[in-house]
């Protein structure tokens, strides 16, 4: 006999069905590779690459090498500086875009760089920054300098190119939240005695917090794992964690150590994501509370009226 | 009397080809409850934004007590605004919203608390101070906005259609409260609205605006009873307006008695006015529906200047305390005359005047008036 499903059961079955392709994709290309990396990080390195199937914590012990600590430290400060600059530039950009009449056009301009492969864009930066590059030639022709400045193969070049690469990821979420922001609140703040700067710091920033945290995560996490930028425009003292992982896989052939570093990256990203989820949940929770309080408020109001 | 005198002189403001304000001059007295009344797009909000400092005139001057305020940014002006959309800060509680202006001036904690509670009391929001704006009803939000705007002790309070987002009953209550608050704080209130009943009920004086110009400034009584132009007559309250030509004009004591030819009434109409008009001049004749008497029998009047017309009740609209009738005239069936009648006595068989009844409508010469059509 054919069993007739109740609507709720049907819904549940359909839900499973709809999410199947996504689930399959995540299992094949995300969960399985991540599990392999976790597994490898706890194994012994093979002599010519690969792993030996024997439990070992040596990969994690090797991480506490002072030279790695230096790289980790550098990765952290380069990431923080680049992310902060991204946010500081993206904030006025997002503001201007939200206020502009040509939003679609400006969004289009932000998308354009993505049409070109990122490697090619990094090479473009090399040709701009190198000693005989565009910028040095320009400055020489203008007579501002006599000798080429060393603009490339150092940490500053890494930071500049990282900011360039990840700026759109900061602008887009900031633009969407600022676009939803009620600008009459700024008028109100000015009216009540705030200067323009005070009105932005005290009224606008607290109200676009969710956009700021999204922009932070969208830029900080990829910058933290960056390896092409430091590889191509950085000097010998610009290595970041991403470069170590590549080196451990392809040169030193220490796969467990590469896996262990990947675990560090993943954990730091996870912390970021959980922080975002947590703050989002808190906001949601607050909204719900507010709604309940409003209903309560209306109820008591009515009952008071009734008494009168 | 607290507050300042607000003077705008020859203020103009254009957006592209659109003249939002066209050479507007107005003088608002100290401590006055002054309304700017007009349809949307008439320039009233632009004038308010110029006074607040959010907009800047192309030409003209604005002064508080003869001191030019145009060079000052909004935060330096002795005026605070209550916004149409409330513009409460969503991330702050009611208490912090009201305390916001004080916090900006780094007022000490004890003073902040004492002043905030004073204004919370003024707008009757005790018990709500720890709520976020999203937890408040529309009326409560507007009270917060009023308290927040008043706590700086400004000399002028600017109100930009503050009640338009509220329902009718609440609007009436808040309007009365607003009037009481005005009496208590005693500063100059400038109230922008498109709702003529709001403006009439609370204002000391009203400026009626249309198409960037001020058409008339006066007390509610003057504006309603002696409108200066055709627009004012039709915008404030309801009225009957007919184009007319002056047939004769003779002095009658202090007034003038005019005989008019009104084609839409197919008859002559008598009207008294304080101004003499040239014979042959084209004007508009208007009479308010509540000034017209309606009866089944011709009015027994020995006054020769009584205007009486016979007609049929085309459309009775009952609204409880009164009825509105549209009367189709016998002599000119294409003209409908609007008449209000109060229901002062209860009749078992229903209202005295019914649909399709033959009736007489009449008004005396000093109930009608003449207006000029200045817009064209």
Automatic annotation (TrEMBL), chain A:
Localization, per the record, is: Cell membrane
Q: Name the Pfam families on file.
A: BPD_transp_1 (PF00528)
Q: Which CDD domains match?
A: TM_PBP2
* InterPro entries given in the database record: MetI-like, MetI-like_sf
GO biological process terms, semicolon-separated: transmembrane transport
Where is this chain primarily localised?
A: membrane
Keywords, A to Z, come to:
Cell membrane, Membrane, Transmembrane, Transmembrane helix, Transport
- GO cellular-component terms in the record? plasma membrane
Give the stretches traversing the membrane.
21-43, 76-98, 105-126, 157-175, 212-235, 255-278
In this chain the ABC transmembrane type-1 domain maps to 72-276
Membrane topology designation: Multi-pass membrane protein
The keyword Transport is annotated on this UniProt entry: yes
Flavoprotein in keyword set: no
Q: Which residues form a coiled coil?
A: none
- Homology family: Belongs to the binding-protein-dependent transport system permease family. CysTW subfamily.
Please identify the protein, giving its name as recorded: ABC transporter permease
Task: Please give the organism.
Answer: Sphaerochaeta halotolerans
Automatic annotation (TrEMBL), chain B:
Looking up InterPro entries in the UniProt record yields: AAA+_ATPase (IPR003593), ABC_SmlMolc_Importer (IPR050093), ABC_transporter-like_ATP-bd (IPR003439), ABC_transporter-like_CS (IPR017871), Mo/tungstate-bd_C_term_dom (IPR008995), P-loop_NTPase (IPR027417), PotA-like (IPR005893), PotA_ATP-bd (IPR017879)
The UniProt entry's coiled-coil ranges are none
Catalytic activities = ATP + H2O + polyamine-[polyamine-binding protein]Side 1 = ADP + phosphate + polyamineSide 2 + [polyamine-binding protein]Side 1
| Enzyme class name | translocase
Q: Which residues form the ABC transporter domain?
A: 6-236
Similarity-based family? Belongs to the ABC transporter superfamily. Spermidine/putrescine importer (TC 3.A.1.11.1) family.
Task: State what protein this is by name.
Answer: Spermidine/putrescine import ATP-binding protein PotA
Give the gene that encodes this protein.
potA
